[in-house]
Amino acid sequence: FQTASMNYSTISGGSIYRCNFRQADMECMSLQSSVFNETSFDGANLRWANFDNAMFQKSSFKNADLSSANLSNARFLDCTFEGATFNYHTNLPFSYDIAFEKGMILKEEF
After folding, report:
1. pTM of the model
2. Rg of the chain (C-alpha set)
3. CA–CA separation, 37 and 67 (whole Å)
4. SS3 call for 16
5. Residue 84, exposed/middle/buried by CB under 10 A (0-12, 13-18, 19+)?
6. Are 15 and 34 within 8 A, CB to CB?
7. What is the side-by-side order of every strand in the sheet holding 15-17?
8. Segment 52-107, tens digit of pLDDT
9. How far is CA 17 from CA 6, 20, 35, 59, 99, in A?
10. What is the largest CA-CA distance in the chain?
11. Which contiguous run of DSSP H or E holds residue 55?
12. What sign has the CA pseudo-torsion 2, 85, 6, 13?
């Protein structure tokens, strides 16, 4: 799925293993109630994506755009976020301090 255009698509209740979503356009995509293992979202556009009740294990979000995404009920185990961007509308499952420790970057857009 590298560089795929998946805007407004849904993956719900699925189990994804070692999938490559690098540079994919996944704006407004619903990934709720799914489990992702060893999956790469590096450089993906995940603006406005819904991660409600999703679980990510050993997955990478390096340089991904998470602006305005709903991550509030998602779980992330051993995931990387270096260079991933978020904004004040992103619902994170952890504090801004932890986001900065993970290497995330706050985009101050209004």
Report:
1. 0.93
2. 12
3. 22
4. strand
5. buried
6. yes
7. 15-17, 35-37, 55-57, 75-77
8. 999 999 999 999 999 999 998 999 999 999 999 999 999 999 999 999 999 999 99
9. 18, 9, 8, 10, 25
10. 36
11. strand 55-57
12. positive
